[in-house]
Amino acid sequence: MSERQERAALTPDERAAARAFVARCEVRISTFHRIAVGLLSGAGLLVVLPVVARDSITGILRALAVGEFTLSDGLLGVMVLAILGVPGFALWLLFADLTRFYFHANHLGSGRETFTPRFTLTALRLPGDELGPSAAAELERSRRAPWVVELLVPSNDTSRARIDRQLDAYSATQAHVRGDDLGRADGLFELAASHPRPLLDEVAKIEYGMVRHGLRLRSIVLRYVKAVLAVLATAVAVYCGDAVVSGLDSSVGLGVTNSVWMAGIGLVWAPILVLALTSPVRWIEQAMRDDGAPSTAVASDPELTHVERVALPVAAAGWVASAGAMLLAVADVDLSTAARVVGLSVLAVSTVAIFVAVSTGRFRSLVSSKRPVAGA
After folding, report:
1. From CA 70, how far away is CA 76, in angstroms rounded?
2. Separation of alpha carbons 362 and 278, rounded Å
3. Which residues cross the membrane (predicted)?
């Protein structure tokens, strides 16, 4: 027994408690992964929406592209790009978070400067202090038995060459340099971050892993909710835009009246999107206040508000473009009085909505601040 193992000698009750704790953590981690798999499946379904709404999107773009191209058409094009870009970016962040959830850096070599991506669940080995000397020696002989090694390194030259190419990509993995199958197996164990550890080291490792899983999963869940809300807001805007252009001749542009309706869609979409993206954080803050928290710093957390920090400026650009297109349309002498009144009314209501959003702190995540926000 090593000096470290002697210092960490556990009583039978302590060893049983450590084993039970590891088992509990494994169950909790499996729950984390079931949640992540559910979010991954849901995110995949969200990607189907652009396919379903393909004709609607192409119809809007076609109406803007045909005919004489005007400044109003250009502004409406910016609006459409903003409407489509926000949910696309939200989904991009969601898939990026899911990828980072499932893969972590596995440092290799003595200097630990080279690393390989490994799956979030590492391969397991029996803790080195769970067996006595004779049983541990017998286990080591079994691990090196050819029939066991073949499970990881098939006994054919094609498989050996494939494994060698994989291991050669990481210069810090030197276990396979002797060229035999056992060396290749040791190299694959190293790539999978499978190392023999005492039981207490396994407990410490799983404690840190639980924290990592919990922190990353909370961001993923929040970004998933925001992505769903952004997609829903965009879907409504796209379908409304399709209703505007569906009756137009394919060789004719929007026209001034339809430009008013399209600009109105953008003016309504922007405040709704701001409300949708900022509401999840507010729901969390309200829940914390209901639990008695006098203040909260959720809105200052860069991980929990990254979607807003990028999407809200895009929504603001879409709103400005919509407002510009609306002003150009209502200034056209060919526009009817009724359409002009409707356009100006929508612009006024949308302006008030944006002002209310700013005054109530909907854009506060854009301002870098380390001070917690007091509860209302």
Report:
1. 10
2. 6
3. 35-54, 74-95, 220-239, 259-279, 310-331, 337-361
With 0-12 CB in 10 A as exposed, 13-18 as middle and 19+ as buried, what is 254? buried
Kindly report the number of other CB atoms within 10 A of residue 186's CB atom. 22
Going from the C-alpha of 36 to that of each of 26, 30, 227, 310, the distances in angstroms are 15, 10, 15, 24
DSSP-derived 3-state class of residue 178: coil
* Residue 371 token pair: 């001070």
Q: How far apart are CA 148 and CA 145, in angstroms?
A: 5
Domain boundaries along the sequence of the chain: 53-104+225-374, 129-195
CA distance 28 to 206: 11
Cα–Cα–Cα angle for 358, 360, 361, rounded to 5 degrees: 70
Helix axes 256-290, 306-330, angle to 10 degrees: 150
Cα(192)–Cα(103) distance, integer angstroms: 11
The 8-class DSSP code of residue 119 comes to E
- Helices then strands, counting H and E runs in the chain, come out as 13, 4
Distance from C-alpha of 129 to C-alpha of 14, rounded to nearest angstrom = 13
Tens-digit pLDDT string for the chain (376 aa): 444 544 457 888 888 999 899 899 888 888 888 888 888 877 776 666 666 566 677 777 777 777 777 888 889 889 999 998 888 888 888 888 888 888 877 777 655 566 777 788 777 888 878 888 888 888 889 988 989 889 888 988 888 888 888 887 776 555 555 678 888 888 888 888 888 888 888 899 889 888 988 888 888 888 888 988 998 898 889 888 888 888 776 666 677 888 899 999 999 999 999 999 988 888 888 888 888 777 777 777 788 888 888 889 999 999 999 999 999 988 887 888 888 899 999 999 999 999 998 888 777 766 644 444 444 3
CB-based burial label for 40 (10 Å; 0-12, 13-18, 19+): middle
In whole angstroms, give the CA distance from residue 82 to residue 315.
Answer: 6
**Spatial contact of 90 and 224, defined as CB atoms under 8 Å apart:** no
From CA 166, how far away is CA 368, in angstroms rounded? 44
Q: Can you give the length of the chain in residues?
A: 376
